[in-house]
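Might I ask for a little of your time on a matter of protein folding? What I wish to show you is a protein chain and, alongside it, a tokenised description of its three-dimensional fold. I should value your view on which stretches of the chain appear to form regular backbone elements. You will find the record immediately after this paragraph:
***
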Amino acid sequence: MKKQRKKSRRLLPLLLLTLLIAFTIWQNLSFTVTRYDYTSPALPAGLDGLKIALVSDVHDISYGEDNSTLLTAIAKEEPDLIAITGDLISKDTTDLRPAIALSKGCTAIAPTYYVTGNHERRNPLCADLITELTALGVTVLDDTAAPFIYGDAKLSLWGLGSETQYQEMTEPEKGAITFTLNRLRVEGNERFRILLAHEPDYFSTYAKSGVDLILSGHTHGGQIRIPLLGAVVVSGQGFLPKYQYGIYQEGQSTMVVSKGLGNSVIPFRIFCQPELVIITLKAQ
């Protein structure tokens, strides 16, 4: 009897380790759909019900052939627009076909808007990717603004290019982001404004521009999370980062940060399942 108990105690850690490995593999091969409702007194009544699919940090990953599983999940949500917030490819990507297939599938579902991330900036094929996406009908927002019509209402979509965010990091005294957003306020002067910006680190700067809703990614949710503690480290923010994933508020501005769909330097996730984010605007 005692031998059986000792054997059971020895097997228990092995069983727990096996379950943890199986759980981690499952999390890395699948994604979840996270839904948020956005409400604000600034939201015009005409934009009530507008639905946005936030796709971020794909890094060449494919859920099903040509990302058919991901595209099916997006289509099921019936979004009115799709926002791709950077790192569609990785810095060492040499084959653009997966990114092009996903983008083509997105444009068949809803108008699709895209901003580059830090990985596109470091990839020599970035210009080719932008040319291909533009040919597909994707609106590339590279420090530009574009109107979006929803029924009888209209909003402005702003997009920050990765070069501008990189300049903010390397030469902060020049205020590249503030300068760009001030210009976009003139170009995209609709009552309600949504900003696509890959990196959430500059949330305070985004908020000062008067933008209402910011859509971001980059963090991957930390990729490795400790239960009850959260992300250990995020690139650009260091240990115990302020912006990990979810909803953040500063003044009248709200920022939604996606955990993303793919992986980067670390090729796996722990307690941090990839996600497709769906945001529904609801007027008060």
About this structure: The mean pLDDT is 92. The helical segments are 2-28, 68-77, 97-107, 118-121, 126-136, 162-170, 176-187, 203-208.
